[in-house]
């Protein structure tokens, strides 16, 4: 049965390779006009500081502020927001925060060192970044979950200053976002967004101190700004549209998986939802459920565009083939909706987050399971990892060479330096041999 809502593919049909390759293509990167516009904003903020931040914020967010102090929120505002929101929502935030914190505490790495046979001391020293920036989207949607996921690993790592920026169109910001900031340990909040917020964090202004690293999602202007300031500061990643791939054997309620696909597709029209199964009748059931349930969704138009643009139901001969295709796609989220998911786990080599079994919906990972929901997209799970405590830490090598060690290592290094025609390196390496004579 063909689906009018999304592509229906079969690995055994001619042309599958080309169709699957098209699924692997992420939406086009920022166009030259956007790149130029973002560069102009960053340049203005780096030159003019507060003045540029105020100008862009007033223009883009329909505000009338005259000084950056009007954009800053302190602990009193965060505490007031926590008291003002629905207690049920506040309790949910607290529960999610505790689970996220517990998971990330397991990622803490200690400084270590050892002494080799010659008595030289070698090791690694771990220290937290001093100051990081957290970008939180605003405008059409607000994401308190992103506050928790970005800020809590930083607090667990030991970051001293966590600066949150979030747009506040017409001066309004979701109080749940502010309550989440208080719970997560955010130390400064500025109600600014867009490329100008990224630039302010990267370069600093008269009122906003620069940071060491910027993390958090945003629109295409924010993503492009992060790309352009990388090198001056660190960034987590340049995130693309969200993705889910589901491997299903027919053992999980098709309504559940239909909703899992919708949950991803409702992010935006370029999000991707793909399901692979060896069971043709099960794929037919999923297609029927999509047609039945789609009109009931509040974001039905966005979901429909997403499924049509980048969604697919794919017939595979077996689960091993499904795993091979998944590893090629390297999805942000992977659901193993099969009777024995742990049997497939060792075969998975590239995925941002892996959800095992019928009860593990991707939406739980978005909010409160514990692992981070900031994940590599657009196939970058082939080489990148979820955001974690390690993203907020520095690693420094420690080297203390003993007199005995300098004899052996000096000659080894000198020989290699000679082979590379680096005379001063060789002389330096050998200088301490025999007391420098």
Describe the 3D structure.
With 437 residues, this protein is of the alpha/beta class. The chain folds into three domains: 149 residues, Rossmann fold; 204 residues, Rossmann fold (3-Layer(aba) Sandwich), CATH 3.40.50; 36 residues, no CATH class. The chain is built from 17 helices and 15 strands. It has a six-stranded parallel sheet, with helices on both faces. A six-stranded mixed sheet has the order 2-7-6-5-8-9, with helices on both faces. A three-stranded antiparallel sheet has the order 3-4-15, with no helix packed on it. Strand 13, helix 14 and strand 14 form a beta-alpha-beta unit. Helix 2 crosses helix 9, helix 3 runs antiparallel to helix 8 and helix 5 runs parallel beside helix 6. It is globular. The termini are far apart.
Short note summarizing the structure:
The chain has 437 residues and is α/β, with parallel strands linked by helices. The chain is 44% helix and 16% strand.
Write the layout of secondary structure elements.
Blueprint: E1 7-10, H1 16-23, H2 32-48, H3 50-61, E2 72-73, H4 75-84, H5 87-105, E3 112-115, E4 121-128, E5 131-135, H6 144-157, E6 161-165, H7 175-184, E7 188-190, H8 194-203, E8 213-215, H9 220-229, E9 234-235, E10 243-248, H10 254-265, E11 272-277, H11 280-293, H12 300-310, E12 312-315, H13 319-329, E13 333-337, H14 342-345, E14 353-356, H15 362-367, E15 393-400, H16 403-419, H17 423-430
Parallel strand pairs: 1-12, 5-6, 5-8, 6-7, 8-9, 10-11, 10-13, 11-12, 13-14
Antiparallel strand pairs: 2-7, 3-4, 4-15
């Amino acid at each position: 049965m063909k689906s009018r809502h999304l592509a229906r593919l079969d690995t055994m049909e001619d042309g599958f390779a080309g169709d699957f390759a098209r699924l692997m293509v992420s939406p086009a990167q920022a166009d030259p006009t956007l790149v130029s516009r973002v560069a102009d904003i960053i340049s203005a903020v780096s030159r003019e500081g507060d003045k540029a931040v105020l100008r862009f914020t007033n223009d883009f967010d329909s505000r009338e502020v005259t000084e950056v102090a009007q954009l800053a929120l302190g602990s009193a505002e965060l505490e007031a927001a926590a008291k003002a929101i629905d207690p049920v929502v506040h309790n949910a935030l607290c529960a999610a925060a505790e689970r996220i914190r517990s998971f990330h505490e397991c990622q803490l790495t200690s400084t270590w060192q050892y002494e080799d046979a010659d008595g030289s001391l070698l090791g690694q020293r771990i220290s937290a970044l001093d100051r990081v920036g957290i970008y939180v989207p605003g405008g059409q949607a607000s994401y308190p979950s992103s506050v928790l996921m970005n800020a809590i690993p930083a607090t667990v790592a030991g970051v001293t200053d966590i600066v949150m920026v979030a747009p506040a169109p017409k001066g309004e910001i979701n109080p749940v976002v502010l309550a989440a900031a208080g719970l997560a340990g955010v130390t400064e909040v500025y109600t600014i967004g867009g490329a100008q917020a990224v630039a302010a964090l990267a370069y600093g202004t008269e009122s906003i101190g620069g940071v060491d690293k910027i993390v958090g999602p945003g629109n295409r202007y924010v993503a492009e700004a992060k790309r352009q300031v990388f090198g001056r500061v660190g960034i987590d990643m340049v995130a693309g549209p969200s993705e889910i791939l589901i491997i299903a054997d027919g053992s999980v309620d098709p309504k559940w998986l239909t909703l899992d696909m919708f949950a991803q597709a409702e992010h935006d029209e370029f999000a991707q939802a793909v399901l692979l199964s060896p069971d043709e009748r099960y794929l037919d059931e999923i297609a029927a459920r999509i047609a039945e349930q789609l009109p009931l969704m509040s974001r039905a138009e966005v979901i429909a565009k997403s499924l049509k643009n980048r969604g697919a139901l794919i017939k595979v001969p077996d689960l091993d083939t499904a795993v091979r295709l998944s590893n090629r796609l390297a999805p942000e989220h992977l659901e193993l909706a099969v009777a024995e998911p742990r049997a497939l786990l060792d075969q998975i080599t590239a995925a941002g987050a892996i959800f095992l079994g019928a009860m593990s919906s991707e939406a739980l990972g978005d909010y409160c399971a514990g692992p981070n929901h900031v994940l590599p997209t657009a196939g970058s799970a082939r080489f990148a990892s979820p955001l974690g405590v390690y993203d907020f830490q520095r690693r420094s090598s420690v080297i203390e060479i003993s007199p005995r060690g300098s004899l052996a290592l000096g000659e080894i290094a000198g020989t290699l330096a000679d082979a590379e025609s680096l005379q001063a390196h060789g002389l330096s390496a050998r200088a301490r041999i025999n007391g420098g004579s």
